[in-house]
From TrEMBL:
This is UDP-N-acetylglucosamine 4,6-dehydratase (Inverting). It is an enzyme of class 4 (lyase). Pfam families: Epimerase. The gene is pseB_2. Residues 3-227 form the NAD-dependent epimerase/dehydratase domain. GO terms for molecular function: aldehyde dehydrogenase (NAD+) activity; lyase activity. Its EC number is 4.2.1.115. Keywords: Lyase. The lineage of its organism: Bacteria, Pseudomonadati, Planctomycetota, Planctomycetia, Pirellulales. One of its GO terms (cellular component) is cytoplasm. The keyword RNA-binding does not apply. The keyword Lyase applies.
Length: 327
C-alpha cells in the first residue's frame, strides 16, 4: 500500500516512517518548507511540500495514497493560542478528512490521551470511561483543539470515511528531533529540578506506538474505533527520578504541594499578561500535570497487538538520543 504521513518531522511521525521502511508499503510525507537534512535521511520516501491548510497539496497526496496517517498537530498546553491551535488541529484535520473522502483513502488519525477521560491513583481510565471522570481534562487550547479534531474525524466517518482514532500516551524515544515530549527529559537532564509535578502520566515508547499504528492499517476491527496506546503509569516524581538518574542528577525533593502549584500558576499567568507571551509554566499546564493521566490499553493490546517494551529500554534510548542530539 501507499502510506502518506503528516507530521513526519515529529517524534511519532518520523518513527512511523522509519518503521514503515521495514515493510512493503510505499511511503510519503508532508513537509513544510525546508526540513533539517538529517530528519528524513535514510528514508526512501516521497515528499509533498505544504501544510495542513494547503487543501490542494492534501488532495494531491490523497490521490496518490491508499492510507493517510495524520500525526501532525500543534501542542500548546495553555489558555492562549486557541485560534492557532484550532486552525491546525481542527481545521487541518477537516482538510485531511475531506481529502480522504474525496479519494477513498483510509485515515488513521493520531489523537492523544488528553482528549480521553483521566484516571486516578486508584483506577486507570480506558476508552469507555466517562469524560467527566475525576473532574475531566483541563480545557486548555491543546485539549479543546484536539477534541475538535477528533470530532471532524467522527463526522467524516458518518459520511463514509474509513478510519480509526489512535490516542498515544506520553511518548519517549529516539527520532525526537525538536525535541517534543523529550523536552521534559532534556530539561530534567540539564538542571536539577527539586519539585516535580504532583500528578502522573502513562509513559510509552514511540516505536511501540508506531508498530500499533502500522498494524491498524490491516486490522480487522470496527470502523471508527478508538484506541488508547499508553504504557507504564508513573507519577512525575518517579519519572523525573529515572530521567535525572540517567544524567547524573539527584532525584526531586518532593511532588509539588498546594503552595508550589499556586505560586507557579500565578507567576505563569501574570507573566503572560505582562508580556503577552504564555510560557510552558501556566495555570493550565500546572493543573494538567497535577492530574493522573493513567490508562489501560487492553483494547489496543487485544485488537492491534500493541505491546510495550521495558520502560528501562525506552528511557535509556531516549536519554542517549537527547544526549547526542540536544546537549
Amino acid at each position: 500500500m501507499r502510506v502518506f504521513v503528516t507530521g513526519g518531522s515529529g517524534l511519532l511521525g518520523n518513527t512511523i516512517l522509519r518503521q514503515l521502511e521495514t515493510t512493503d508499503h510505499e511511503t510519503a510525507y508532508l513537509v513544510r518548507g525546508e526540513a533539517e537534512p538529517d530528519v528524513f535521511s535514510g528514508l526512501n520516501s516521497r515528499s509533498f511540500q505544504g501544510d495542513l491548510s494547503n487543501r490542494e497539496c492534501l488532495q494531491e497526496a490523497a490521490q496518490w495514497a491508499d492510507v493517510i496517517i495524520h500525526s501532525a498537530g500543534l501542542i500548546h498546553v495553555g489558555w492562549t493560542r486557541l485560534e492557532e491551535s484550532m486552525q491546525v488541529n481542527r481545521d487541518g484535520t477537516r482538510n485531511v478528512v475531506d481529502a480522504c473522502l474525496q479519494h477513498h483513502c483510509q485515515l488513521l488519525h493520531i489523537g492523544t490521551v488528553n482528549t480521553q477521560a483521566i484516571g486516578s491513583r486508584d483506577a486507570t481510565a480506558d476508552e469507555t470511561t466517562p469524560l467527566d471522570n475525576q473532574g475531566g481534562q483541563i480545557p486548555c487550547s491543546y485539549v479543546q483543539s484536539k477534541r475538535a479534531g477528533n470530532a471532524e474525524v467522527e463526522r467524516g466517518i458518518e459520511r463514509g470515511l474509513r478510519g480509526l482514532l489512535l490516542h498515544p500516551g506520553f511518548m519517549l524515544g529516539p527520532w525526537d528531533w525538536k525535541p517534543s515530549s523529550g523536552r521534559m527529559m532534556l530539561e530534567v537532564g540539564q538542571m536539577w529540578r527539586p519539585i516535580a509535578p504532583r500528578g502522573g502520566c502513562s509513559v510509552c515508547d514511540a516505536r511501540d506506538v508506531a508498530n500499533a499504528v502500522i498494524a491498524a492499517i490491516d486490522a480487522d476491527v470496527p470502523n471508527g474505533r478508538s484506541y488508547i496506546l499508553a504504557g507504564y503509569n508513573k507519577t512525575y516524581y518517579q519519572l523525573w527520578t529515572e530521567m535525572g538518574r540517567r544524567f547524573g542528577k539527584p532525584r526531586p525533593i518532593m511532588p509539588a504541594g498546594p503552595l508550589q502549584r499556586i505560586t507557579a500558576s500565578s507567576y505563569g499567568d501574570l507573566r503572560a499578561r505582562w508580556t503577552g507571551q504564555e510560557t510552558e509554566v501556566n495555570s493550565a499546564s500546572v493543573e494538567l500535570t497535577s492530574q493522573f493521566h493513567w490508562y489501560d490499553s487492553t483494547r489496543a493490546r487485544t485488537e492491534l497487538g500493541y505491546q510495550n517494551r521495558p520502560l528501562r529500554e525506552t528511557l535509556d534510548d531516549a536519554a542517549a538520543w537527547i544526549r547526542e542530539r540536544h546537549f
